[in-house]
Amino acid sequence: MAKLWQTKSTSLHPLAEQYTVGNDYILDMRLLPYDIEASKAHAQALLKAKIITKAELVKLTKGLNDILTLHKAGKFVIKQSDEDCHTAIENYLVEKYGALGKKIHTGRSRNDQVLVATRLYTRKKLKQISEELIALQKVFLAMAKKYEFVPMPGYTHTRRAMPSSVGHWAAAYLEELINDHMILESAYKLNDQNPLGAAAGFGVNLPLDRELTTKLLKFDRLQVNSLYAVNSRGPTESYILSVLTKITMTLGRLASEMIWFTTPEFDFFDLPYQFTTGSSIMPQKRNPDVFEIVRGNVGVIIALQTQVKEVCKGVISGYNRDTQLTKEPLIKGMGIARRSLEIMSLVMAEVTPKKDVLMKSLSPELFATSEANKLVKKGMPFRDAYQKVKENLADLKVPDLVAALKEVTSIGGPGNLRLGQYKISKPL
Length: 428
Hints:
CATH architecture of the largest domain: Up-down Bundle
CATH class of the largest domain: Mainly Alpha
CATH topology of the largest domain: Fumarase C, Chain A, domain 2
Number of strands: 6
Distance between the termini: 41 Å
Low-confidence stretches: none
Strand order of the largest sheet: 1-2
Order of helices and strands: HHHHHEEHEHEHHEHHEHHHH
Strand content: under 5%
Largest sheet: 2 strands, antiparallel
């Protein structure tokens, strides 16, 4: 079958085809259902513009549904010679309906086709990421409530600093994940606009109702300027990946802490066997590979974001083939983020603190600041209290830990988690 741009007198060198197409035709197996969805909406617009008849709309819709059925059964193949899903779909319709199949591309360019298919695909994936992010929020809310008064050292400069609690630590991640969802919402909003009708960036002289396709495809709003619609490919993907970078950075810190906190040297938490792997040479080993892969994937997401920025930083207005190279990083990045959130929810729901070890970990010097503040309450200037406690560190004793934690009243302190103030994010 012919390429959409090909004529009888033109041909493309096989190596040039292989190089320019790359693996786009493979990636497009993911986008195909969304291109079909957009094509059905576009066909409705063609009917309203009187470019096709009602009978032709019915036929085209049936043909598109047939492709979707074949795709779900694994029987619809996009070949390298097709270049992409858009060509494969049109070729199928032409083969099935002849001249009618050639009408489906009226008023469209592959530029706005890939834009709208990518937006629809991304919308679904961001919703899935939202669900996983909320699931992890719920895990940490449960941990914060259950372990509110289980003591745990607080660290500064990677040294034990002040008394804290597992609940305080868990609530910190809860609040961060809530904020992470806030920026995910901004990425969703940026993506949720309809570029269909922009064509190659300069619109078409046909009365296509873009508001109609916006409504049919359930976009929040229309991307008005056709040139900017094309220019936004790349910057939109870059922003989405920057948001995913922030989310995975949260997971990366969590993973690093859990790697340390589950070592024999710390032994603060129990990591169930089903989330560890073994050594090929050392029979005794239990390795935290899940956490290590999560931590490593932070760098992968950062690299994907950088890749998109580098691809797009020098292009001029209008479509440039460079932007084809933004598709894979976006798809890969969203997949990594979703799976990382999913596995961390699963693992953290099963992790339990070792209360006896944690109790013993709060040595007397961690209460130095608390002792200084007791003197302050009696009227001593803080700097004098600081010096007095520092001179008598050897005399400090560990108080009743649970009682001590409950006495803490500083904002967000272990004894003042204010868990009722946290509101789990709403799904996108």
